[in-house]
Amino acid sequence: MSGTSRELSALERAAKAVIRHCGRITIRTGASREIIRKLSIGRLGDGAYGIRFRSGLVNSKLESDSHMSGMMIATDIVIVRVGNVLIALEHDGNVGEFDPALTRTAAELAVARVQEAAQDG
């Protein structure tokens, strides 16, 4: 999405607020557990913000993506601002199909394409 600095700064503030208020949530029911955590995405573009959502069985280790046993759903959401463009990236999948390392790779590629398009334009 592209827009004026004013329009994008409002969206960027909203992304920061989500990270601040939802960066450490755990919900447990009788059979399942969901977590939302801040996703460290590194320095990309002019600002990068990420959230990690994991859902699994009540006793599963959802904190570590390297031990995905018991996990049912994994979703990463990343917002990156590059100049006057805001990139919203969602990476999700079921346990056997999800590679958390691809989230950062996809975000890096998206930033590179936006920067390339800005140079060509």
Overall pLDDT level: 89
Q: How many E strands? A: 5
What is the C-alpha radius of gyration, as a whole number of Å? 16 Å
Distance between the termini: 16 Å
Element-level helix/strand string: HEEEEEH
User: How big a fraction of the residues is strand?
Assistant: 35-45%
Q: Main β-sheet: number of strands, strand sense, barrel status? A: 5 strands, antiparallel
Notes on the protein architecture:
By secondary structure, the chain is an alpha+beta fold. It has two helices and five strands, in the order H-E-E-E-E-E-H. The protein has helices spanning about 5-20, 100-120, and strands spanning about 25-30, 30-40, 45-55, 70-80, 85-95. A five-stranded antiparallel sheet has the order 1-2-3-4-5, sandwiched between helices. A hairpin with a 2-residue loop joins strand 4 (about 70-80) and strand 5 (about 85-95). The radius of gyration is 16 Å and the shape is elongated.
Keywords summarizing the entry:
alpha+beta, elongated, five-stranded antiparallel beta sheet, 2 helices, 121 residues
Give a brief outline of the structure.
With 121 residues, the protein is an alpha+beta fold.
Note the topology.
Elements: H1 5-22, E1 24-28, E2 32-38, E3 47-57, E4 71-82, E5 85-94, H2 101-120
Antiparallel strand pairs: 1-2, 2-3, 3-4, 4-5
